Amino acid sequence: MAIFGKTDNAPPEGGAADRAPGGSPAGTGSVVTVVGPKARFVGEISGEEDIVIHGRCEGNIRVDRKVTVSSSGDLQGDVHARWVVVAGRVHGQIQADEKAELLASASVQGNVHAPKVIIAEGAQLQGNVAMSAAAASPSIPDRNKSEEN
């Protein structure tokens, strides 16, 4: 039954954890690989699509897009992606090319490396955070040197 132009089978609107790096909802116009809440995956995952983990993954993940570990998700391995969002558990290193986000329910045991890191109040992190620019930023001229010439 449609109410206000929405159908019953329409996906629920989510927050930041459900959005791709461009701001569009994950899955809109792109392929998303989902590990379901009752699933257990053992092995390496690589590719060029978004990954959403609701269940348990044992192994490393390397993708060119976004990896989301939902509040029910459990990742035992390293992850390298453009954007990483954690609401569940990660036991491994996190490397994001653009941004890593640990939501309030996140529990991470491992280092986090990304140009932008957001850690919500309540998130648990046992490890180090390293932030470095994704690309070399233009140098700012030294004001003292330009005044001397």
Structural features, described:
- With 149 residues, the chain is mainly β.
- The chain contains one helix and 16 strands.
- It has one domain.
- Helix content is 4%, strand content 41%.
- The strands form two sheets. Strands 1, 3, 4, 6, 7, 9, 11, 13, 14 and 16 form a ten-stranded parallel beta sheet that branches. A six-stranded parallel beta sheet has the order 2-5-8-10-12-15, with no helix packed on it.
- The N terminus and C terminus are likely disordered.
Tell me the structural class. mainly beta
Beta fraction of the residues? Answer: 35-45%
Q: Topology as H/E string?
A: EEEEEEEEEEEEEEEEH
* Radius of gyration of CA atoms, rounded to a whole number: 18 Å
Which consecutive residue ranges, at least 5 long each, have pLDDT under 50? 1-27, 135-149
Mean pLDDT: 80
Task: Report a brief summary of the structure.
This protein has 149 residues and is mainly beta. The protein has one helix at 143-148, and strands spanning 32-35, 40-42, 45-47, 50-53, 56-58, 61-63, 66-69, 74-76, 79-86, 89-91, 94-102, 107-109, 112-113, 116-119, 124-126, 129-130.
Topology:
Elements lengths: L31 E4 L4 E3 L2 E3 L2 E4 L2 E3 L2 E3 L2 E4 L4 E3 L2 E8 L2 E3 L2 E9 L4 E3 L2 E2 L2 E4 L4 E3 L2 E2 L12 H6 L1
Parallel strand pairs: 1-4, 2-5, 3-6, 4-7, 5-8, 6-9, 7-9, 8-10, 9-11, 10-12, 11-13, 11-14, 12-15, 13-16
